[in-house]
Structure formats: structure tokens, C-alpha cells
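User
New here, help please:
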Amino acid sequence: MEGKIRMRSSTPKLSLAVVVALLAATIVFAQAGSTNVPSWTVPPYHGHSASGGIHTMADISDAAIFVAVTTCRVFDTRDPVGPFGGPRLIGNVTRNFDIDSGPCTGIPVGSSAYSMNFGSILPDGDGFVTIWPAGAAQPTSSFMNTQVGEVVANAAIVPAGSGGAISIFPNTGMHMYGDINGYFMDSGGDLNDNTTLFVDGSDGNEGTITGINRDTLSTTFTMSGVRGFINTTQTGPSGVLGQNAADSGANYALRGINDSNSSDAAGVYGTTNLDDDAVSVQADFFGYAGVRGTSHSNGVLGIGELAGVNGALANPAGGVPIARGRLGTSFGVDPSVGAAPPWGVFAEGDIGASGAKFFLDPHPTDPSKVIGYISLEGPEAGTYFRGRARFDRGKATIRVPEHFRAVTDPEGLTVQITPIGGMATVGVLKLDLEEIVVESSRNLEFSYLVQGVRATFKDRSPVFTDGIFRPGSADASMPPWLSPEQKRRLIANGTYRTDGTVNVETARRLGWDKIWEQEGKPSKGPSPE
């Protein structure tokens, strides 16, 4: 190498409006071929009271994520002629280098800026070099100053331009190289080929950074908006943690919003492990949801001191809900002080079931068995009380309990009298909600059963029109939890075919296909037989 080579740093007054930061100069000697210069790092931030480093100034761009990569030479004009090699830069001629399409792997399309180190080698004369994002206006300030016979290196963060390229303008001929040691992401793109980062700065009070991890462990999450991944057996760590430190306000530590109304869509989808995505559920039963849990164990687990899970059925016309239900609730009252018992299931509205309603007790002698009694069923909301008494001089008076009077309609009362200890003729002299007077041909002990109808539901008909057994979509199948007789009836009335698929002719006749369309569920299905 001929000529005297002096080390020189760039002038301190250099600045670029489009260059995010101008970092400390690194001096290198002229190099032959594409040999990497030593790696450099982004200088740490120091407060105003410290010396050196980068000091805080007014923000001129949204926050971005820096991703470090192994130092790699992107271009060197001393190499053979090509997009990232020669020829030597010509004075007063701009040349573009497409950084994310260069020889350095792992630089994703969509990077917002590049962290690079540039070197000017033996320029023809004194001058300067300007570097800026391709497609933008050339700035009026220089990136580095050059002097004939010198080698100067300088580091900078350069925003990505059109097609991911940067533009370089020397006002004198020279060789030049460019090394990259990292990039920034703030507007979408792949991060190291498996993660996409987004920065939402649309709101002046927000700078939210989210990420998608396209790990090869699962293909289900390839289009996730946010994914957090951890691998630990410790208690407490979370893949994604949302926390709000404020002690008031109707705010959310974690919120999911999904505008889709397709089957199985959800604002928040939780699963206990990646294999649980294969858990089969019937889409027409669940539809789309605000929160959906899928698991081989508990799909959704709710634990609370007031209620484990609260659910409300919204009124389409607005206003208060038309039905509500709670799982595991005491309404905030301590049951140990004599209040109402805690409820496993509490409904503010009707409770319906396609199966029987059991109550269970342990077997008194066999620990492997359980006794299950089924609730008495009938066409009305019945009430009753019962007891024993004795006739005195051929008559007896049964006092009606206050709790029975409070819930029973005065019409429709009945009483059954069963003499004990012998034969007797009995009759009823008076029957109302105050007292019941009965007489007998003999003074015997007797048992009685008084029955009525719940006053608030006395007009409820046992036959009504509802969509309880209506399929949720045209491609649904017969629910497996139905009893054999229920399945037979649904086939006989035309709801399903004998193979368990939906009878589309019935669906069209009753307008179910229109309901499915309104609910945003698929209306396709097998052709009519």
C-alpha cells in the first residue's frame, strides 16, 4: 500500500435528519478483500449526570427493537464487480445497496433501520460521503469527511429505504465497504426468520411492542398476533404477562379483540399445551367467543372469592342482561356466619338441561359406589310440604308454613291424607294457604302431603318453541350426549338424518339456514337426499 495512512475520526458536527443516531468513530486500516472489521456495539445510554454515551434528546421516531447479528460484510467495492462488490465508487454519483437482499443472512425484509460500520478507502481527494435511505431526499449534511490517502471508518444507524436499500453519495472517487452488526424492527417483518415484531405508535400515549414467534414446535401459531414462549418448570413464570398497577378504573391488564364471527374464532384462545389444539370440539356448540379454552383437562378454570366464573346473556336491544349465571359463588357473604350457602351453580333465570338432574350421596357402606337420585319432574313448577298429625274427636287442623304460603299460588292446592294404624274414611273440610281442616271416621294418626304450584311460574307451559335442539350449523352432527330415545326422536321429527347429519330440508323449511347466516356460521352442508 502506497502513501502515508493516517487515522482520522469524523468531524463532531456531523448529523443526519434521517439517520437515527451517529455513533463513535472506529478507525481501521486499508484492507484487501472482504475481511470483517472488529465488531462494535451500540453505546449504552447514560443520564445527563454521567459522562460519555448517548444522552436523551427529543424523540423523533417511534420506539424500535434492536436485534444484534454476527458482524457481516454486506458490500465491498474492492470485490469483483457485482451488486455488492465493484466497481469503485465514482465521485458525485449515487449508488444503492439493497441491505436485506445482500450476502448477510438473517437480515429480514421489513427492517426499519440498519446498525452499520462504513469505511472509505484511499479516496481520490478531500471530500465527504453522504448516506441515507434509498428513495428519500439526499440530506445536506455529510456522514463522514474524507482526505486523500486516508482510511476512515464511521458507524451509524441508517433507516431502510425503498426495497430495504440505502444510498451512498461520495463527492470524490473511492473504495468503500459496509459491515452490519444488527437491525431495528418497528413496522413488521421477520425477526431471525421466526418472529415478527410490530410497534404500535398510532396513539400518542402508546408504544406497544408485540411479537409473533413462529417456532417449529407448532404450525398453529404461524399467524398469531402475539405469542410469548417460555420453557421452565418453575412456578409463576408466564409466556405473556399483562399487568396494570392502577388500583381503580375499568381497565384491562390483558385484552383480546377479534372482529371475526366465524366458528371457533375467539378474542383470547388458551390451551394448556401445543398438543391440545387437536382436542376435538363441535364448532356449532361453541361458535365464536370472547374467550376460549381448549385442554385435555380444564378448558377454563376460574377461581375467585366472590365467584369463580360470571356469565351474562346480553340483551340485543341493550340495557341489563336478560339472564346471568355464576359458577362457584357466595355473593361475597361468608357462609360460616349463617348466611345462604355457597352455590356451585347459581342462575338468575331458568336452568335447562337435556338430561336428568341428579343429586348424589356417598354409599353408606361401599366406598366404590355412589347413590344418585334423579329430581322429580312434572309439567309445572310444583311446591309441597308434608308431615304427620292425629285426629282428635274426628277432626285435625294442618297449619300451612309461612315459607309455603310465600311461594305458592292459592289456586290448585291438593292434599293427600293417609291414615296410620287402621282403616278410616277421611275428608277435607277446608283447604287454603292459611290452614287445612280434615276429618276422619276414626281418631287415628295420619300423614299428609300438601302440594301446590309456584306462584311466579303458574302460567308456564311445558310445551314451547325454542332452538334448544336446533343444530348450530348445517354441517353439525348429532350431539353425542343425548340419550338413545332423544336421538330417535330427533331423527323422527326431521332434525337429523339417520346417519346423524343435519336434515337440510327441515332446516330450510323452518328458516334455520337464515339463522345460521345471521350468526355468521357456515351454512354449507350435504345436499338434500
About this structure: The longest helix spans residues 484-492. Residues 17 and 139 are 7 Å apart (CA to CA). Residues 21-190 form one domain. Helices lie at 283-286, 402-407, 484-492, 504-510, 512-518.
